[in-house]
Amino acid sequence: MRHFSAAEVAAALPPSALVEALRDAFRSEIVTPLRHHHTIARGSGEAATLLLMPSWHRTGGYIGTKLVSVFPGNGRRGLPAVNGVYVLMDGDTGVPVAVLDGKEITVRRTAAASALAADYLARPDARRLLMIGAGAMAPHLIAAHCAVRPIDTVTIWARDPAKAAALARDLDRATLPRPCAVAVTTDLPAALADADVASAATLATEALIHGGDLPPGIHVDLVGGFTPAMREADDAAVRRASVFVDTRTGATTEAGDIVQPLQAGVITAADIRADLFDLAAGRHRGRETPAEITLFKSVGTALEDLAAAARVVDGR
């Protein structure tokens, strides 16, 4: 059985190649049960989360499972909030094939899923990217969005301006497909008004993105909010936008940005225009007009992990 470190996973999964691997996966016959989601109470501090995410090719191929822990208080310990490991098995025999760094797979496939959605939903001429949040996902989302759109300006907002400044300073320009001007802002509404794409990756429980601040033509990419209690965009944003999701089952069960508006009657399930299966298969064209506001909500799916892990192991 082979072992792939974070560095080896990263080298095998450049954003543009991973976007295409995910596009193929969403067109393929892959079985993906709803992930197991367990809350782990802690006597002191915030509760932790354990995620178990299985997926397998319907015939042959691979069987894969990701084990992920989310400890929101880890930042105070100087540790990442999200950690995990991925186990890949042969689809015909069940024999373990490889163990891969789960954290690296997670951040890269999550960013690639957002970029895949943006390839259908963001305007083709989108140049200005607003990154909301400066955590571990932020540099990967920036690189992935730059891989599918001609982004040349990146603005970063975070609750802690020092973290935004650190990301701007340390962002590896070598991983971007073209030179980008990078700036930091403390004025989120103004930054939204100037953005073509706004990508949010936070642990917010109250909305940061308000519908009244969204300009015509913007594409909103919501990556945080992986429980029903979490929220990055308010009801007005969801009401104004054409709503898309990675998977209907996951988004309507786990994503606060979708679950809460559904429960409040702000939208109905019929208002979700399409998921990534529909977009990749061509059942929905995505953006309809240049002025349309589009909103994509991802919660993650084990299909994406399987596609990423298979690409690492197979080398293609």
Number of H- or I-type helical stretches: 11
Query: Shape, please?
Result: globular
Q: How many angstroms does the end-to-end distance come to?
A: 19 Å
Overall pLDDT level = 95
Protein structure class: alpha/beta
Number of strands: 15
What sequence of helices (H) and strands (E) makes up the elements? EHHEEEEEEHEHEHEHEEHEHHEHEH
Q: Helix amount, in percent?
A: 25-40%
CATH class of the largest domain: Alpha Beta
Description:
By secondary structure, the protein is of the alpha/beta class. It has two domains: 2-105 and 303-314, 2-Layer Sandwich (ornithine cyclodeaminase, domain 1), CATH 3.30.1780; 111-300, Rossmann fold, CATH 3.40.50. 34% of the residues lie in helices and 25% in strands. The protein contains eleven helices and 15 strands. It has helices at residues 6-12, 15-26, 102-121, 138-148, 161-170, 188-193, 235-240, 248-254, 256-264, 276-281, 302-314, and strands spanning 2-4, 30-31, 36-40, 48-57, 62-70, 82-90, 96-101, 128-132, 153-157, 181-184, 197-200, 219-222, 242-245, 272-275, 294-297. The strands form two sheets. An eight-stranded parallel sheet has the order 10-9-8-11-12-15-13-14. Strands 1, 2, 3, 4, 5, 6 and 7 form a seven-stranded mixed sheet that branches. Strand 8 (128-132), helix 4 and strand 9 form a beta-alpha-beta unit. The longest helix is centred in the middle third of the chain and has 20 residues, at 102-121. It starts with a strand and ends with a helix. 48% of the residues are buried. The model has no long low-confidence stretch (mean pLDDT 95).
